[in-house]
Design a protein that fits this description.
alpha+beta; 6-stranded mixed sheet; 10 strands
Length: 158
């Protein structure tokens, strides 16, 4: 019992900072689909550092403004090269699920993924103990990688 209470207190005193980025190559549609999951509170606090307006992701007054802030921030902090070439992605939208914000992006016209290089510093400007976990799928294979601050580069070969 004491062990459970101690573990619970440590978790409260030392919260963890993690995001999960799922990248899936859809060969049939020739797209790469990106889902970024972060704690809503962490994303809001980070965006407030760069935005003069009010940031409320759960109940936005101006959803288009929040969409733009999320899109701009993630586009600045997440860079992807596919088969050696930098690619840009389009923001699809975001949704809230419990305490997390899921943001969705898409890269068009990608018939094949042989190699993917990810450069990610997302939320490093908020918390130096941030961890970004990647799950990348292509050709029926899933590979995962964890980037702990200050590391930013992960490479996936398929």
């Amino acid at each position: 019992m004491v062990q459970w209470i101690t573990t619970g207190l440590i978790a409260l005193l030392h919260p963890f900072f993690v995001s999960v980025i799922e990248i899936n190559h859809n060969a049939k549609a020739e797209t790469v689909e990106i889902s970024v999951r972060v704690f809503t509170e962490d994303l809001e606090k980070t965006l407030r550092k760069y935005t003069p307006g009010k940031i409320d992701i759960n109940t936005p007054i101006d959803k288009a403004f929040i969409d733009k802030q999320i899109s701009n921030y993630i586009s600045q902090k997440l860079h992807i090269k596919i088969n050696g070439k930098p690619v840009s992605f389009s923001f699809i939208g975001y949704e809230i699920q419990k305490e997390s914000a899921w943001s969705y992006f898409e890269i068009a016209k990608i018939p094949e993924v042989k190699k993917m290089e990810v450069d990610c510093s997302m939320l490093y400007d908020y918390e130096s103990s941030q961890t970004n976990i990647f799950h990348v799928k292509s050709k029926g294979t899933e590979k995962s990688w964890k980037l702990d601050y200050p590391k930013t580069i992960a490479v996936f070969d398929f």
